[in-house]
Design a protein that fits this description.
Two copies of one chain form a homodimer.
Chain A: E1 2-6, E2 15-18, E3 29-38, H1 40-46, E4 60-61, E5 65-72, E6 84-87, E7 90-91, E8 114-116, E9 120-121, E10 128-131, E11 136-139, H2 150-167, E12 176-180, H3 184-195, E13 199-203, H4 211-217, E14 221-223, H5 227-230, E15 236-239, H6 244-251, E16 259-262, E17 272-274, H7 276-285, E18 289-292, H8 298-310, H9 313-319, E19 320-325, H10 330-333, E20 341-345
Parallel strand pairs in A: 8-9, 12-13, 12-15, 13-14, 15-16, 16-18, 19-20
Antiparallel strand pairs in A: 1-2, 1-4, 3-5, 3-10, 3-20, 5-6, 6-11, 7-8
Helix pairs in contact in A: 2-3, 2-8
Chain lengths: ~350, ~350
Amino acid sequence: MRALTVHPGVPGSARIEEIAEPHASAGSVLVKVLAVGVCGTDREIIEGSYGAAPAGEERLVLGHESLGRVLEAPPGAELAAGDLVVGIVRRPDPVPCACCAVGEWDMCRNGRYTERGIKALHGYCAERVRIEPEFVVSLPPHLDRIGVLVEPTSVVAKAWEQIERIGRRAAWFPRSVLVIGAGPIGLLAALLGVQRGLSVHVLDRVTSGPKPQLVRDLGATYHAGAVNEACPGVDIILECTGVGQLVFDAMRSTSPGGIVCLTGISSGQRLLEANIAALNRSLVLENDVVFGTVNANRRHYEEAVGALARADSAWLERLITRRAPLERWREAIDRGPEDVKTVIDLSPPPSPAPLSR
Amino acid sequence: MRALTVHPGVPGSARIEEIAEPHASAGSVLVKVLAVGVCGTDREIIEGSYGAAPAGEERLVLGHESLGRVLEAPPGAELAAGDLVVGIVRRPDPVPCACCAVGEWDMCRNGRYTERGIKALHGYCAERVRIEPEFVVSLPPHLDRIGVLVEPTSVVAKAWEQIERIGRRAAWFPRSVLVIGAGPIGLLAALLGVQRGLSVHVLDRVTSGPKPQLVRDLGATYHAGAVNEACPGVDIILECTGVGQLVFDAMRSTSPGGIVCLTGISSGQRLLEANIAALNRSLVLENDVVFGTVNANRRHYEEAVGALARADSAWLERLITRRAPLERWREAIDRGPEDVKTVIDLSPPPSPAPLSR
């Protein structure tokens, strides 16, 4: 069967390969992969700057944002052939930390987690994969091809859960959120903000392409200026770019008791001239919080499924600005300036047959 | 009666004045002030860089770390003449924000709070003061002169409560804390860390004077080197200096899932060359939290009283490295390099009478 693989650490080593069928040891649920979403982490792995192959192997099967259909499931797994499913990305170490031991592998304290398609475990960008039943998430059939958004939505569901848990350190009635970056994570974060009844503002640098209208169609407000001018006195800032200057601006721009949630990662290395003492003073005198969040555990995947099921499916489909079949995977990796989410289709719908009269 | 007053904004304007007895409108509990602790905020006010007099007045009575004895209390106030008490510092605005409305004025969201001795309300450094019963905290008599440490301990009790509430965003079993700065706040934070059963490390730059031994006598470890070398992999960092470089080092030095609590304020304005993108990356990939905390509400004062009552009173008394009577207030303001807490005594114990044979 075919898979998209890479030699981690070697730029330009990604290619389609014929590989063996997945070994039974990878999990008792056999899944036919329908689609795999592409994100910045995949691009970093392809560029050779991130990722690790399984122990003793040279190449890694890519892909962590999955969508598939069950081919075989063991008895008692509450799964049946034909079910639409997503595979969870992270796995705890066999000797788990305190968080992994209770299923919170997204909060892993010892760094010994593994991740399918990223770190020491083969990913989902293959025609068939095997998954352990406890790492399979079932989707309602009507989510259909939008189900490929479950994994990035799980990251956002975790971010919102953590914002709310941290917010409960005191009385808190947030009204507004500023999302920085209108990529897939930013737009999904905005969606979940709207679902919470908040006044949602989204900041990005583009003024053309689909992003401004996608924001407006959520009932949110689109901004293209400076962070501190987008929504003065905002209660929550959800930073989704990882760009140093924007992160620093976010930390300085909340109202008293504000929460800044960092979800973005950039490879930027530029040094900023920063007055950290003044930043500290405003964090202290205003009781502000800045926190980072990564990955997601099962409850976040389940929340993500619920959030997507409640959303307008036509709006969600518009987030997927490009779909390429497996053999043309490069088209999904090469992201255009107006792309939001790009997807590799492993099971594209059949081309319509020519009409016969 | 005598009081220590200042013209906010005017450096060098502090002096002892004769002022009128406190007006009944200030509160129904009349208190004879025994002592007032001095902190960095008092020094900033005396230097003319902070503070505000009550509306329509020019001068502000200083003092927010109080200790007194009730002279008169209204019926039903659960207070009686002779009770040892401390006055709470902050008051909510008559039109309270959502936090102030539930008694969490320390988390005030609209900035319209007032503070005795700091912002728009006369402080406690006068021979007699009046306080509203709901802002009076009773102390067990055996706390005696150590009671002047209740206010700074309330700040630390709030910091620990917030650390623990934020920590509960996920499974969390912290084992170690690094306190940066061995001033009064740092040493009291270390005490409350020891009371929680944590492995406590304290970092300061001095290697002489009472601080290293005060730390060791708590059962904690004293360090005088770099932040990232003091306690690698520490779960919690409690920053008590506000110095930009130390704040930045703290943000970069926790273990995965770590919490950095900022409590210190400095007037430093030096710009640092900071790689904010790299800081962001580590906050995100490790699920780290950085938060600021200021002030305290009633429950924190009550926790502070309990923490001081459980501690070794001889160790606490050693934190007070200088006591000066009101007329020599400058001796308490001028902090020496080895001072921890300095106190203005408004009711010093009488000098021993000469022994007669």
